[in-house]
Specification:
Layout lengths: L2 H6 L11 H14 L8 E2 L2 H8 L3 H13 L3 E4 L3 E4 L28 H8 L26 H13 L14 H15 L8 E4 L2 H12 L5 E6 L3 H9 L3 E8 L2 E2 L1 H7 L5 E4 L13 H14 L2 E5 L24 E6 L11 E4 L5 H12 L4 H12 L2 H28 L3 E3 L7 E6 L5 H10 L5 E2 L2 H4 L12 E5 L5 H17 L1
Parallel strand pairs: 5-6, 5-8, 8-9, 9-10
Antiparallel strand pairs: 1-3, 2-3, 4-11, 6-7, 10-11, 12-13, 13-15, 14-15
Helix pairs in contact: 2-4, 3-4, 6-13, 8-9, 14-17
Length: about 500
C-alpha cells in the first residue's frame, strides 16, 4: 500500500480523551513497526497530511516531532521527513483470511511448570452481574455493611501513616492477632499470631502449601468429589492427585490408606464437605489424624464456610484435635465478607511459620495492606462479630425459604442432601438427567444452578465410574422472594427435560 493510502486510512477519534497528536503519533509508530511504512520512506509534508486527515497542521507537527525525538523519523528542513533507515523492521506478514487465523503462539514454549498451569482443567467463575437464584459460592453482598466499611477506610485514608509502606509478608500484625483470637474462640484452633499467614484468598494459601510441602510426583489425597481449585494448585507443582471417595461420614480414610498409602498430604473440608455438604465424623477425624501422625503426612483443613451452621453450634476444627503438628488450617474471608476483598489466612504449625512467611514474600511480597488494616479495625470495633451473627440469621431465613420452595416444587425431581451448614445444598437428580445440560438450560431461563458432575472431572481415578448427576442450589446470595420465583421455573424445566 502506498504511504499516502496508509496514512489516510488512519482512524483518529476527536471525541477521545487522548489528544489527536498522540493518536496520530501512535498510529504512525505502529505502521512503522508493522512494516507498513518501510525504512527510508518519505512521509507527506505536515501541511499536506493535515489536509488529508482534516486536522490542524500543528497536530501533525507535534506528532512528527515526537516520532523524531524517539528515532522513528529523520529529516532536515527543505528535504522532507523520512522513516529512519536504521530501524530493524521486519517485512510485513501477509494478512490471513478470518478462517485461517490461528491463536498467537509464544516466542518459545512455556516451561514444564508453566505448561502445567495451562493444562489445569479448572474453570474460573467470574461474577460481574447481579446474583440470581440459586448461585453457589456467593455470600449475601446485599446485606454487607458497606457504609461502615467505607467509613473505616476513609478514616485511614484521612490519616495515612508509615503502615502504608511495605509490610510484613506474613500479614498486618494487629490483624494476625485478631484472627488468632477469633479462631481460638470460635473454632478451637490452637495458634499464636506468629502462626497466622494472611493470604490473598484461600487459593493462594493452597498454592503456598503445594509449593512448600510437595515435590514433583509426591502423592496427595483429595476428596472425590472435591474442590477443583485444590487440584489446580497440586497439578501446577507436579503432584500426583489421588482421589479418595467421600461418604456420609466424610473422607473414607480406609480407602485412602488402601489405594494410596504413600501420600504426603491430604486435603479435606471436614466441617462442610465441598460440594456434598457432609460433616466428617469424629471417628474419621481421629482416624485421619492417627494415620497422618504415623505416616508423617500433612493434612490441609479447609474451613471455607464453617461460620454458618443452622442446627447447632459450629463444630470444633480438626486442627484443635491435632497432637502431632501435622494440620495446616486454611480459611477465607470471601464468604464471611465479600469475594472481591481477596483476603484469606493460613494457620501453620510453629515449625513452618518462617518458611511460609518467606514463601509468601517470594510470591507477592505481601497482601494489599489497606484492606488488612481496615479489616483489623472492622474486627476491633466489634463489627465483624455483629456481621457474622446478623448474616447467620439472614442465611437461616434464606435456607428455610429454599427448603420450603424445594418441598413445594422440586422434591419430585431432586433428592435433597445435607442442609445443616454452609451456603448451598447438594441434590441428586432422580431421573439421572444430564446435569450440565440442565444447568445450561436453567441459565437461559435466568436460574443459576451448578452441575455436580464437573466436581469429579479434575480427578483421575483408578476405577472409572460414571459420576452421579445432581444440582447444587445456593441460597445465600438470593432473597427468599427470588428463590420462590425461581423454583417453579426450575420445576417446569426438569419436568420437560
Amino acid at each position: 500500500m502506498h504511504v499516502a493510502q496508509t496514512l489516510t486510512a488512519l482512524r483518529l477519534d476527536a471525541s477521545s480523551r487522548v489528544p489527536l497528536f498522540r493518536q496520530l503519533y501512535e498510529a504512525i509508530k505502529q505502521a512503522i513497526l508493522a512494516g507498513q511504512i518501510g525504512p527510508g520512506i518519505q512521509l507527506p509534508p505536515t501541511r499536506e497530511l493535515a489536509v488529508m486527515l482534516r486536522i490542524s497542521r500543528q497536530t501533525v507537527l507535534n506528532a512528527y516531532t515526537q516520532l523524531m525525538a524517539e528515532g522513528y523519523l529523520a529529516g532536515t528542513v527543505g528535504k522532507g521527513t523520512f522513516v529512519s533507515e536504521h530501524l530493524p523492521i521486519a517485512a510485513p506478514k501477509p494478512t490471513a483470511s478470518p478462517h485461517q487465523q490461528q491463536p498467537p503462539r509464544p516466542l518459545r514454549p512455556l516451561s514444564q511448570r508453566g505448561q502445567r498451569f495451562l493444562d489445569t482443567p479448572t474453570k474460573l467463575n467470574i461474577h460481574a452481574d447481579r446474583p440470581t437464584a440459586f448461585r453457589i459460592g456467593m455470600p449475601g453482598i446485599d446485606a454487607f455493611p458497606f457504609d461502615t466499611w467505607a467509613r473505616l477506610e476513609a478514616r485511614r485514608w484521612r490519616r495515612p501513616s508509615y503502615q502504608l509502606g511495605y509490610g510484613d509478608p506474613a500479614g498486618y500484625g494487629p490483624l494476625r492477632e485478631m484472627l488468632a483470637a477469633y479462631l481460638r474462640a470460635s473454632r478451637g484452633v490452637h495458634c499464636a499470631p506468629e502462626q497466622v499467614i494472611v493470604t490473598s484468598g484461600s487459593q493462594q494459601a493452597l498454592f503456598l502449601i503445594a509449593n512448600l510441602l510437595l515435590s514433583p510426583d509426591d502423592a496427595a489425597w483429595v476428596e472425590l468429589p472435591g474442590y477443583p481449585g485444590t487440584c489446580a494448585a497440586l497439578h501446577a507443582v507436579g503432584a500426583r492427585i489421588r482421589p479418595v471417595p467421600v461418604d456420609d461420614e466424610g473422607l473414607m480414610i480406609a480407602e485412602g490408606r488402601r489405594l494410596h498409602p504413600d501420600a504426603k498430604l491430604a486435603y479435606v473440608t471436614p466441617s462442610h464437605q465441598y460440594p456434598l455438604g457432609v460433616t466428617m465424623s469424629l471417628k474419621r477425624r481421629l482416624e485421619l489424624l492417627a494415620w497422618a501422625a504415623e505416616r508423617r503426612m500433612w493434612i490441609v483443613e479447609d474451613e471455607y464456610d464453617s461460620e454458618y451452621r443452622y442446627t447447632g453450634p459450629p463444630i470444633a476444627s480438626l486442627q484443635s484435635l491435632d497432637q502431632a503438628g501435622c494440620v495446616l488450617y486454611v480459611g477465607t474471608l470471601s464468604k464471611v465478607l465479600f469475594p472481591g476483598l481477596r483476603l484469606g489466612y493460613l494457620v501453620v504449625p510453629p515449625a513452618l511459620a518462617e518458611a511460609f512467611a518467606r514463601g509468601k514474600a517470594a510470591i507477592d511480597r505481601h497482601t494489599a495492606i489497606v484492606p488488612q488494616i481496615v479489616l483489623a479495625d472492622f474486627i476491633a470495633e466489634g463489627h465483624f462479630m455483629r456481621h457474622i451473627k446478623r448474616m447467620r440469621d439472614i442465611y437461616a431465613e434464606r435456607r428455610a425459604a429454599l427448603l420450603e420452595a424445594f418441598d413445594a416444587c422440586l422434591a419430585d425431581e431432586l433428592t435433597l442432601g445435607p442442609a445443616d451448614a454452609g451456603f448451598h445444598i447438594a441434590t441428586a437428580l432422580k431421573r439421572g438427567l444430564d446435569d450440565q445440560a440442565v444447568a445450561r438450560a436453567a441459565l437461559d431461563k435466568g436460574v443459576e444452578v451448578r452441575a455436580l458432575t464437573p466436581f469429579y472431572d479434575a480427578m483421575e481415578t483408578a476405577e472409572k465410574r460414571t459420576p452421579p448427576s445432581g444440582l447444587l442450589l445456593g441460597f445465600a446470595a438470593a432473597t427468599p422472594a427470588e428463590m420462590r420465583r425461581a423454583a417453579p421455573i426450575l420445576q417446569d424445566l426438569l419436568r420437560t427435560f
